[in-house]
Amino acid sequence: MNLLGIVAVSGKPGLWKALAQNKTGYILESLDVLKTKMVANISTAKIAALNEITLFGEDEDIKLVDVFERMKNSASVPDAKADGKKLRDFFREVAPDHDEEKVYASDMKKVLNWYSIIKDLPLFTEADPTTAVAEEPAPAEEPAVVEEPAKPAAKKAPAKPAKEADAEKAPAKAKKPAAKKA
Questions:
Q1: So what CATH class is 6-132?
Q2: Per-residue pLDDT tens digits for 105-145
Q3: What is the pTM assigned to this prediction?
């Protein structure tokens, strides 16, 4: 699952894809059908990358990516508008060691909403590029002969005509107003 560049913005519903960064913030595009674009100001908006979000666990935190993987393999995923008891039972199945005192029903609804947004996108079935690079076996390296490219000859600046060169060296003389005799 490739969630790189997918973010959640505080105060904005849904998920966003980070397109670029400028001086004041990030340029984001919504993942819905409207493809709304906005600039999220760094100083006022809180932006959280989905691949870095974790849920509170009993012993250690649970990565959201792992929860999404278990949700993908689950037989049935409840609607985000289901009652808290159904959501809690489902989360006991997909995140069995989550901390039930710290993970609220609103958190579970948010996770289910995010899952419903990204489950049909192609990035949901893509491999994570950070783990794919680590899993690839390193090719057998043969000693390669590297030839250094010839260094280009240093070009000299064209010589300036004598009048211009002398004019640059000599300081410009300022004319003083003539003093009046009384």
A1: mainly alpha
A2: 999 999 999 999 998 888 777 776 665 544 554 444 444 44
A3: 0.68
Q: Are 112 and 91 in contact (CB under 8 A)?
A: no
Closest by CA to 37, choosing from 79, 65, 9, 58, is: 9
- From 73, 78, 21, select the one nearest 45 (Cα to Cα): 21
How far is Cα 62 from Cα 163, in angstroms, rounded to an integer?
Answer: 76
**Domain assignments of the chain as residue spans, ordered by start:** 6-132
Largest CA distance in the chain: 109
Residue 66: C-alpha distances to residues 17, 34, 38, 96, 169 (Å): 20, 29, 29, 12, 71
Which pLDDT band, with edges at 50, 70 and 90, does 171 fall under? low
Side chain identity at 172, as an amino acid letter? A
Rounded distance, CA 141 to CA 15, Å? 43
Side chain identity at residue 10, one-letter code: S
